[in-house]
Amino acid sequence: MTRFLTLTLSACAALGVAASAVADGHSNLDLEGAVKSRKSVMTLVSYHTGVLGDMAKGEAPYDAEIAVAAAENLAAAASMNRVVLYPAGTEQGAIAGSRAKAEIWSDPTGYDQAATTLQVAATDMVVAAGTDLEALRGAMGAVGSTCRACHEAYRGPRN
Amino acid sequence: MRRVVTGFAALVVVGAGLGVWFSRPGALPDAFAAEMAAHAASAEAGAMVFHAADCASCHVAPDGAADVLAGGKAFASDFGTFYAPNISSHPVAGIGGWDLDSFARAVTLGVSPSGQHYYPAFPYAAYQHMTAADVADLFAYMQGLPASDVASLDHAVGFPFNIRRGLGLWKAAFVPGGYVADMGDDPVLKRGQYLVEGLAHCAECHTPRNAAGGLDTAQWMAGAPNPSGPGRIPGITPAALDWSAGDLVEYFTSGFTPDYDSAGGQMAAVVENLARLPRSDRAAIAAYLLALP
Predict the structure, then answer these.
(1) Interface mutation target, options B78, B250, B256, B272, chain A, most CBs of A under 10 Å
(2) What is the ipTM of this complex?
(3) Global pTM?
(4) DSSP letter assigned to residue B215
């Protein structure tokens, strides 16, 4: 049993090395850099969502100028071109620190749709944020459910 | 894995020695049945039980409509892959032909109408705490949901785990007799305990398991490896999670963490369900978590 396991594991490891060699062959990108950059985009998203969220919750005073600026940056972060950010071989388990589920690559249409939904919600937020607090609160719900839906399908648990 | 197999095999041998007594499927207590019969069941109240118990999170089809409990979702584990069954109101494919007592026995004792033990992928260890009124309300609500004629899938579970009778021993060994945490008599904490340890079955993911798959109650809610893939399910004790009551309630409502990360994975659906409960229930859950050792 132990020997069988060892053999199987060795075979898997060998395949894994071969697979990452193939992935490297297809991409000249720095995979660790891609993971780091994705996380930076997420930091941008959460910071600006926080500025808007604190206003929605009443923890910060509503300020149209700041709200619009935050929404514009959120929309910009959501519009980053994902081709360079999500190269093959950067899913959770394949590279340190990643929480990206393999479904991002096995279901590219679904992932694209989820990412586009955030772009739409963020663009709507730009308008709502400049209107009034009530509109901002309404748009916040859409942003929140977008985060949840995408993280439900495409982000794995903490490492 | 080898440790797991050895552990289970040892259990099976011990069980044979003690005879089959401990593995027999439990019967629904008469008092529980009488209490349900005396209760005027409300489908509206049952909807709240349904959401609090997260039934849909497991029992809707992958990519299926949110109120059709057709089953089919796969749950990988060390013991094999379990498939959520059809529990829609269909009389043959689902549970539309069941009576209330059968439903209560299934939910609170993990025993099928034909007297078979269910696998603990079905969180009856938590649902054992469900009140008679909540079970009756839940049944009334679920029987009003749409029917699906999709047949349930067989679990992909190998020997010895495919011997269902053995699950009786597992239950005797690992289903806690009562509540795990000591919450005293405070009504808010008691409500939180009913929701966390009972309906919402939080421990099923947030508490680590021993080699035989039983919850390690000494590490209650301390976090655990993800049973179905890479990564870890976070600990939610005050020691593991430095959130205020307000932070917790906000997370259960909008899904946002204090630093505006959002709920994901299985927890996204949990948050969606918790958000439908009265705010007082979300506050009770927060109070319970903050009172944990």
Answers:
(1) B256
(2) 0.80
(3) 0.87
(4) B
